[in-house]
Design brief:
The complex is a heterodimer of chains A (163) and B (574).
Chain A: E1 2-10, H1 15-25, E2 32-37, E3 43-51, H2 54-66, E4 70-75, E5 81-92, H3 96-107, E6 111-115, E7 119-126, H4 128-138, E8 143-148, E9 152-155
Antiparallel strand pairs in A: 1-3, 1-4, 2-3, 5-7, 5-8, 5-9, 6-7
Chain B: E1 2-5, H1 6-16, E2 21-25, H2 31-38, E3 44-47, H3 51-65, E4 69-73, H4 77-80, H5 83-91, E5 96-102, H6 118-122, E6 128-131, H7 138-150, E7 156-162, E8 171-174, H8 193-204, E9 209-213, H9 215-219, H10 223-233, E10 237-239, E11 254-257, H11 264-272, E12 275-279, H12 285-288, E13 299-304, E14 318-321, H13 324-338, H14 344-360, H15 375-385, E15 391-394, H16 398-406, E16 415-416, H17 427-437, E17 443-448, H18 459-465, E18 470-475, H19 480-489, H20 505-511, E19 515-519, H21 522-533, E20 541-546, E21 556-557, E22 566-567
Parallel strand pairs in B: 2-3, 2-4, 4-5, 5-7, 6-7, 9-10, 9-12, 10-11, 12-13, 13-14, 15-16, 15-17, 17-18, 18-20, 19-20
Antiparallel strand pairs in B: 1-8, 21-22
The chains are: A alpha+beta (163), B alpha/beta (574).
């Protein structure tokens, strides 16, 4: 099953390498990974999406907790949560296709952020499913390039991951 | 406030931590540090002949004393040579501080001479690592390193030290922190009382209980509590390879070791138990055999300081995360307060069953009548000659298993071996580390002709520093454990397990300035051991013992089977 693990980690050189190294050493898989400093610059917030059996996920969270630089950690999929991913996608947009792509982008509430005579660059945010549905709808023939940030997640309601 | 260079700060900080010996090897990036060592006498440096040996010396000392060992090596090859030793300590959760020199900060990343990314190389095998960015950080980093290495589940910590952090005339204010707090690190201080209470109830209601204890009891200095619990309940106990001695091996309630080469009675009792109290163990694959068939009837209680050890390989019914000593104290208190006793009738029939099992194999092996020693006989001879009082530092292979089976340890910290990583070459330097710190004790390296050659150069270090360890080499001319597997699983095709062209061991020992003795037949063994611990008490003695190359270690569990599935000899299976 897919899990979203959110980690509060010391913003220090080498901390990211320890997290990534752990996944590699123990053959856990990483589907997406995002990391950036928080409002407190001594801390980074990392979101990892991974999948595995219940035992594997339990080991992943326990092993992550053992890393000295990991301050706190939560498996967001254990409760209600929000998740978002941002995608920039460059597509061929010429002739009859041009209007159709614009319409599809509107339906998915995407924004066209760059335009040339033959190319649109569209920005889209949403869940992983939504981004994939958009790619499907556009069709691989006209996609020139995609870049995705990976998932960021946060718990719904009062719950916070903080010091 | 006092002004010190980075090199001086390092030495002073080690002194503040109570370090007496540092094991290491100098080189370009550490010259400032070695100069700082030269100018003081509080912390002594021991010059090894290979950096790997420095790590094993520190490790042996740590296992015997419970205090962290300290290693100091230069950058590049000096650092990479410590990796096996760091991994060895990591596998067995041994506290160790490894300080590695590094090229000057401005050269890092530029493929400089003797540069290697030690932070990256060591990452998978350390508990934590630090890279020094400014000389003034040194005292705090050393304090943190010792705290992390020794608290919670112990382990090795690396400090990477660029040369420009130690420049003699670059002086900074020095003060050693009294306490340290790391906001992201707080090892558990006690177990969950509700869980402990539940565990005690299950434990007291058991009909066929087993206590399965391991290295965590030795590391957690909880041997006394373990003894009180086991004796108070009159329950049988089996110990892992790493835990031997925490409970006395010669005691009636001890069933010996369990697992792949565990005793018949230990493995049978585990398999048939209805309640297992696992203390400071990790359900290693060399213990459990096939996990799907592991102890089918047992409710399992598991005490461990590391939450990731719980339910890692075997599902645990009642987990208790906490330090073994405080958890056992609480268990003892609750038992007293509950004023209940175990089911006496059930216990009588359980012990009767165990005594039946004890008769079946009973550590038997066939002796030769041509005078050629069996390795088991050699270990029994050693046990008698040392009255079971020696520190036994083992290498890896058949001799290690024979030592674990036939040398009965009555005290913790006296059986020192690389259990997790299985590092050949560990035993001799580990013995040196023990002997340097316990000069009045008998310290024996039990080894084979394969393992000993992986760090034999340290005989030179022993002469320089006067370290009279005893090397007891069970020489069968083969890599015995490899050969055993080849006999059992590869129809006796001995692929690269025979060692030709072995040296004349006595001459080799003499060449290094030591004593070499030879045992060819069993009638020579006692005399040679008497000389070793008598006439040559203060000398390093290398005893080369010719043993039967055909011998296998038994019992041996049948791979992927249950605990109870064992070979008991070459022809007898359960």
């Amino acid at each position: 099953m897919r899990h979203i693990i959110s980690i509060l980690l010391e913003n220090e050189p080498g901390a990211l390498a320890r997290v990534v190294g752990l996944f590699a050493q123990r053959s856990y898989n990483i589907e997406t990974l995002t990391v950036a400093p928080t409002e407190d610059v001594t801390l980074s917030r990392m979101t990892i999406t991974t999948s595995g059996t219940e035992r594997e996920i339990e080991q992943i969270t326990k092993q992550l907790n053992k890393l000295i630089e990991v301050v706190k950690l939560v498996d967001l999929t254990e409760g209600t949560h929000l998740e978002r991913e941002l995608m920039l996608i460059k597509v061929k947009a010429s002739g009859a296709q041009r209007a159709e792509i614009k319409r599809t982008a509107d339906i998915f509430r995407g924004q066209i952020v760059d335009v040339t005579a033959s190319v649109y660059t569209i920005q889209l945010t949403g869940t992983t499913d939504k981004l994939e549905a958009f790619i499907e709808a556009i069709g691989s023939n006209c996609i020139l390039e995609t870049v995705r940030t990976g998932v960021s997640g946060i718990a719904r309601g009062e719950k916070t991951l903080s010091l | 406030m006092e002004l010190l260079s980075g090199g001086e700060m390092l030495v002073r900080s080690l002194h503040e931590e109570g370090v007496e010996y540092v094991y290491g090897y100098p080189g370009g990036s550490l010259l400032h540090v070695y100069d700082a060592f030269y100018q003081q006498s509080a912390v002594k440096h021991v010059l090894v002949r290979h950096e790997q040996a420095a790590t094993h010396m520190a490790d042996g000392y740590a296992r015997a004393s419970g205090k962290p060992g300290v290693v100091l090596v230069t950058s590049g090859p000096g650092a990479t040579n410590t990796i096996t030793g760091i991994a060895t300590a990591f596998s067995d959760s041994i506290p160790m501080i490894v300080i590695t020199g590094q090229v000057p900060s401005h050269l890092i990343g530029g493929d400089a001479f003797q540069e290697t990314d030690m932070m990256g190389l060591s990452r998978p095998v350390v508990k934590h690592s630090f890279s020094i960015k400014h000389p003034s950080e040194i005292p705090e980093v050393v304090k943190k390193a010792f705290y992390i290495a020794t608290s919670g589940r112990p382990g090795p910590v690396v400090i990477d030290l660029p040369k420009d952090m130690t420049i003699p005339n670059d002086r900074h204010e020095y003060s050693y922190p009294k306490k340290i707090k790391i906001r992201s690190y707080s090892p558990p201080q006690k177990g969950h009382t509700g869980q402990i209470r539940k565990a005690v109830e299950v434990l007291l209601a058991a009909k066929r209980p087993m206590i399965y204890s391991g290295g965590g009891v030795v590391l957690g200095k909880s041997s006394e509590q373990l003894r009180s619990l086991v004796r108070g309940l009159n329950y049988p106990i089996t110990q892992t390879l790493m835990g031997l001695g925490a409970y006395p091996g010669t005691d009636r309630q001890s069933l010996g070791m369990l697992g792949m080469h565990g005793s018949y009675e230990s493995n049978m009792a585990m398999h048939h138990a209805d309640v297992i109290l696992a203390i400071g163990v990790r359900f290693d694959d060399r213990v459990t055999n096939g996990v799907d068939k592991f102890c089918p009837d047992a409710t399992i209680i598991h005490i461990d300081i590391d939450p990731s050890s719980i339910s890692k390989t075997v599902d645990i019914d009642i987990p208790i995360v906490g330090p073994v000593d405080t958890v056992l104290d609480e268990i003892l208190d609750i038992i007293k307060e509950m004023d209940e006793t175990p089911d006496a009738d059930a216990l009588v029939s359980w012990w009767a069953q165990i005594d039946e099992w004890r008769k079946r194999h009973a550590g038997r092996y066939e002796k030769n009548d041509n005078g050629l020693l069996k390795p088991q006989e050699a270990i029994e001879g050693l046990f008698e000659a040392t009255k079971g009082q020696a520190y036994i530092c083992s290498d890896v292979g058949q001799h290690q298993m024979f030592a674990a089976q036939y040398y009965k340890f009555d005290e913790p910290n006296k059986w020192i071996n690389s259990g997790g990583l299985g590092t050949m070459g560990f035993g001799f330097p580990a013995a040196m580390g023990v002997k340097m710190n316990y000069p009045d004790e008998m310290v024996v390296c039990v080894t084979g002709e394969g393992s000993i050659q992986m760090n034999i150069q340290e005989m030179s270090t022993c002469l320089q520093y006067g370290i009279p360890v005893k090397i007891f080499c069970l020489n069968n001319g083969y890599l015995g454990m490899v050969r055993q597997w080849q006999d059992m699983n590869y129809e006796g095709r001995h692929s690269s397990s025979y060692m030709e062209s072995l040296p004349d061991w006595a001459k080799l020992a003499e060449a290094y300035g030591h004593v070499g003795l030879q045992v060819d037949t069993k009638d020579q063994l006692q005399g040679v051991l008497d000389d070793c611990f008598g006439k040559y008490k203060d000398r390093l003695v290398f005893i080369n013992v010719a043993v039967d190359p055909d011998e296998h270690v038994y019992p041996m569990q049948v791979p992927t089977g249950a605990m109870r599935d064992m070979w008991l000899s070459k022809t007898e299976r359960t």
